[in-house]
Amino acid sequence: MPVIPEKKWQPKPGLLDILKGRQRAILRIDADRTIGEINPHIYGHFIEHLERCIYGGIWTENGERLREDVLRLVQPLKPPVIRYPGGNFASAYHWEDGVGPRESRPKRFDPAWKVEESNQVGTDEFIEFCRRTGAEPYICVNDATGTPEEAARWVAYCNQDAQGEQGRRRAVNGHPEPYNVRLWGIGNEVWGQWQAGHTDAAGFVQRLRPIVAAMRAVDPAIQIVAVGDTLTDDADPAARRWNETVLREAGDLIDYLSFHLYQPGQAGWPENSDPEALYYTLCAAPHSAEKDIQRLAEFIKQAAPGRSIKVALDEWNVWPAPPEGAASMHDVHYTMRDALYAAGMLNAFQRQSKVLTLANLAQMVNVLPLIVTNERQSYATPIYYPFEMYRRMEPIALDVGVDSPVYQSQALGNIEAMEQVPYIDVSATRSRGGQRVVLGIVNRHPTRRVDLSVRLSGFSDLSPKNGWLLRHADPLAENSFVNPGNVKSKVVDLRQIGKKSRFTLDLPPCSVSVIALE
Ligand code: AHR
Known about the structure:
Oligomer: single chain
Strand content: 25-35%
Shape: globular
CATH architecture of the largest domain: Alpha-Beta Barrel
Low-confidence stretches: none
Bound molecules: alpha-L-arabinofuranose
Structural class: alpha/beta
Helix content: 10-25%
Largest sheet: 8 strands, parallel, barrel
Mean pLDDT: 94
CATH superfamily of the largest domain: Glycosidases
Number of domains: 2
CATH topology of the largest domain: TIM Barrel
Number of helices: 10
Strand order of the largest sheet: 3-4-7-8-9-10-11-12
Radius of gyration: 23 Å
């Protein structure tokens, strides 16, 4: 595992910053310029039987109970959807090992990860976690070492009433009411050499068709997510071929085509030794991701015309090189910079909400972590806060105009170079009736405050009410067990601005703001 020695970077305002003072930007919001309805699933999450995400993370080490301290952190996020049980893990998982009396559940050896799995956490426990957090479950089935019958039994176990064979089994296990799981993924990264059951697109479709037929015979209302591949540029022949085959041969059966995106990806690790250049590149990366989403949506439109297949980005995160001494490649220490990245991604998702209707941050606890735990404590990493703040967004996405100062960013791994990256990145949402507008604003400038002049049109009687601000003077600031609140959002009262159709927001450097107008 290549690790990069940590280098510190503390940006200081230069002479130019001091002489020029604040920067200025303009935001124009028109009530009628709507993009469309946002599917709340774009704020989704992902948990996997991987390292300490499940055991010692969301559940106690022995899997007996959900950890209340972790629940207290997860609940304010109101996670709309959670994907489970993997990831790579799903490709060799037999769900029936994880239901029934706990003492009789077999231990199993996972050939992909070469670990023994205790199976104390399975379907019923996952659903309990979803119920306690208000999330909709999204289950990924084993298309590789599993069978269509096994996948169909899983759907029946979750969705049949207590009279059916599998429904009765669920009821005997203490859960008479059907779980009503709507979202089902078939396979994970099947195109990857590392995947159990790795095959080509034709091989995948051959497995997918009978699996989906068997699952839909049990419950015709389920929604199917098929594995797609990331189109990082228009000419990527392998990804194009994969997506084309899946869409052509299985487009009639699927509701979503998924892709995964970890930026900058391992190809970007050996190069990223300059923390300042890395800051600018990672802050720009959501714009590169946004192009990937648009490219896949466009591809679907052309390859499966007339079908309303949506894009699912069902694993995403910023994944810089793990620091020296990291326990694994997933032991990344997230910073304020990464919170700017996460907010930039949520802005991009809102802008692309017409085509992107499902997205899952990978992952929730201890693995590329939103939350970190040890035996007794837990804390939220900086990437947690954009999720907490953005759950206040309204359901309609607006197409806003932003005049912002820009910078040039370099390419790194799977992130494109960009000529004009706006320092100020904005997404705007409004309620259906237009009585409430909520903005998400990122100031990527590491040292300069920005005066953002906001110009509203088409709204009546709106004025700034509340704000939630996440900022830190050090872009590389982290949280820890010793200092869990070092990077943390706070509430700001904006009522003093009063009722105006033009007003100015003062945006601190290196910050994320969520602003509610009512
Ligand atoms: O999120 C960690 C792993 O990364 C997942 O198991 C896999 O799908 C991806 O390659």
